[in-house]
Amino acid sequence: MKNIALVVGVSGIAGSNLAKELIAQDWIVYGLARNPKGSIEGVIPVVADLLDTEGLAIALKEIAPTHVFFTTWMRQATEAENIIVNATLVRNLLDTLSPKKCVKHVALVTGLKHYLGPFEAYASSGTLPKTPVREEHPRLDLENFYYAQEDEVYAAAERDGFTWSIHRPHTLIGHAVGNLMNMGITLAVNASICKVEGLPMVWPGSEAQWNGVSDVTDVRILAKQLVWAATTPEAANQAFNVTNGDVFRWKWLWEEIANYFEIPFEGYKGGVRPLETVLLTKEKVWQSIVQQYQLQPNTLSTLVSPWHTDADLGRPIEVFTDMSKSRKLGFTAYKSTKDSFIELFEQLREEKLIS
């Protein structure tokens, strides 16, 4: 019998790319989202709101997944609200599936905020990890909805007997439109605007991020690790970091991105210069670019998420990841980070999303 996947958050950057990987590996794939943004060939759509338990039960009535991949979250005003809402999303789904006795494995995608705390709390704890961050680092004494989501998975696994895996990517780089956290498209759109206006691409972040070692996670690498952990007995009931497998410094990569777009750049110059304060004033400029280059008619706010890019690049500490744990167990997928960005930019141009 084929494995049957339920990808929760299939319209997002992680979920959509995971669904494509599962289809390529000949899984039956159901894709759950509140508002599906577009069809993925081979994915069976499931429209449901995880906060609506009655509607969720109806939507999943005829579906019995063997594997659940949870790749979504809902951003709230405070971390306390994030905890309540995002734990509820996981609990409602697993409670709904529990009577079916069909689930063999649940995978949860979180991230490096597990080690750093929520966005507003970066570097505020006295127990931040030494880099590279490792899975064995204890939870911080901070409110964090990732911990609450994990606890929901652990409780349901003990109740229902399935295995689980937790996946902690660094910044995700990949294709998705309308995503809450999308650095790749944000930087591409910003570069397109800089080129039209004849301006340099200005580094928005901190000195620590400019000079320090970093890494990112291509969404296709995350997808491969999710499937690997779900089908590898030795990987059961463990948490894994996941990145491309290389490291870089932003002072090198920033120049490479600027060179791709054939524009000058400015590096760190003594302070943080947030991208959000500049980029979100450029709607008229962006619409003129859309018309001039006959791009898809997206608003600027649909494409970019500068708040997230600023939060990542503005960290006052160096952040990169140890991948030894999954490597020792046999996960060997690798991606050049420069290639991750350039391939994304080429795809965005091909689809007429950027100039």
From TrEMBL:
PANTHER family: 3-OXO-DELTA(4,5)-STEROID 5-BETA-REDUCTASE
Any Pfam family the entry gives: PRISE
Domain named PRISE-like Rossmann-fold: residues: 66-354
Protein name in the entry: NAD-dependent dehydratase
CDD domains (alphabetical): 5beta-POR_like_SDR_a
Organism: Myroides marinus
UniProt signal peptide: none
InterPro entries membership: NAD(P)-bd_dom_sf, PRISE-like_Rossmann-fold
